[in-house]
Design goal:
mainly alpha, 13 helices, globular
Length: about 375
């Protein structure tokens, strides 16, 4: 097969895959979630199998344990988070008014003298923007709670995804072996190497970063709740959830926590300092201990590239796109590095004329 025919084949395969995602994105969520769960839990199933447990029994044990944990979270944590979210949306206008009242001396004083008449307009625009954001959050919550499609999607993920994950865990090794038999023999070593690099990037980042995000969400949530911050559990768990993207969870959680602490504790600096201390200790724990040991520093996924991938795939395919964004970003990164290696080793790079350093004159 010529290079041109190979290129056409892989471009057609990629186009068919994208079309498949676009056509069936509305029903793929529980299946993609189940496959993602199986991929994340496969090392645990391998360990149990190595201890002498049959593969099917290991898979069922893992899935049953996961279902028990999810049920406990739904019963104990979700109602509490839902209550905090509803109260946060209801009280957001009052929080904004309190924050504007605290900022008024600065707006009327140094900032007002610096900006002149624009200071009043800036204050009004900020207040209007925050008010619109509060209204949008309230409407979003109402739509989510009243949408039958949302409830159906959640139920389908809870019911179907564990079943899909169980079947995938049982057959995972056999499927990988069968796919390996389908590889073209001529290019098998290269494809295996690239697939191994993709797997290392995805598994190193996803498994490690998910573990870091869950740990930091629990730490921030419990820490902020213990220091008495209102909506502390909600802010902390959201910071952990957004922590799948490095620095995004810490930054957003720190800003939200300090704003709520400023409104709640001012003029007492002790409470504000305690909230800052929780995030400072958490950042040290994450950056110096958890991330180096659980994620590593060479997974090949830059935070900017990851953020772009999540937004791009999310806008194209919804939540399903966000689930496949990380594997897709890792795969594209591996293929891009391979293409660069081939270019640097090719005559196209070595036979290029060197650029003269003296303006083009040869002495």
């Amino acid at each position: 097969m010529t290079l041109e025919r190979q290129l056409r084949f892989w471009l057609a395969a990629a186009a068919l895959f994208v079309a498949f995602l676009w056509l069936f994105s509305g029903v793929l969520l529980p299946f993609v979630a189940g496959i993602a769960l199986a991929y994340l839990l496969d090392p645990l199933a391998d360990r149990l199998e190595a201890l002498g447990l049959p593969r099917s029994a290991a898979a069922l044990t893992i899935i049953l344990g996961l279902v028990v944990v999810l049920a406990a979270v739904l019963i104990l944590v979700v109602p509490l988070l839902g209550d905090q979210f509803v109260r946060f949306v209801d009280e957001l206008p009052a929080l904004v008014d309190r924050l504007r009242a605290l900022a008024a001396p600065w707006v009327d004083g140094p900032l007002g003298r610096l900006m002149g008449e624009k200071a009043g307009a800036l204050d009004a625009n900020i207040g209007q923007a925050i008010g619109q954001a509060a209204s949008w959050l309230g409407q979003l919550l109402q739509q989510l709670l009243s949408s039958g499609r949302t409830v159906l999607s959640i139920l389908s993920v809870m019911v179907i995804a564990p079943v899909v994950a169980a079947y995938m865990l049982i057959d995972w090794d056999r499927m990988i072996a069968r796919i390996d038999e389908w590889l073209p023999r001529r290019h098998q070593p290269v494809i295996r190497r690239l697939a191994g690099e993709m797997n290392d990037a995805v598994s190193g980042f996803v498994r490690g970063q998910v573990a870091v995000s869950v740990t930091m969400g629990l730490y921030y949530g419990l820490g902020l709740a213990l220091v008495g911050l209102r909506f502390g559990l909600l802010i902390g768990l959201m910071a952990g959830l957004l922590g799948i993207i490095p620095y995004l969870g810490f930054g957003s959680g720190l800003i939200a926590g300090l704003v709520v602490a400023l409104v709640q504790y001012w003029p007492d600096w002790h409470g504000i300092a305690l909230v800052g201390l929780v995030f400072a200790v958490g950042q040290g724990l994450e950056g110096w201990i958890l991330t180096p040991n659980w994620v590593g520093r060479s997974v090949g996924l830059h935070p900017v590239w990851l953020l772009f991938s999540l937004f791009a795939f999310g806008s194209l395919f919804g939540f399903v796109g966000m689930l496949v964004a990380v594997p897709a970003a890792a795969s594209v990164g591996v293929l891009a590095r391979y293409a660069l290696e081939q270019y640097l080793a090719s005559p196209l790079h070595h036979d290029a004329e060197p650029v003269a350093s003296d303006g083009g004159r040869d002495d």
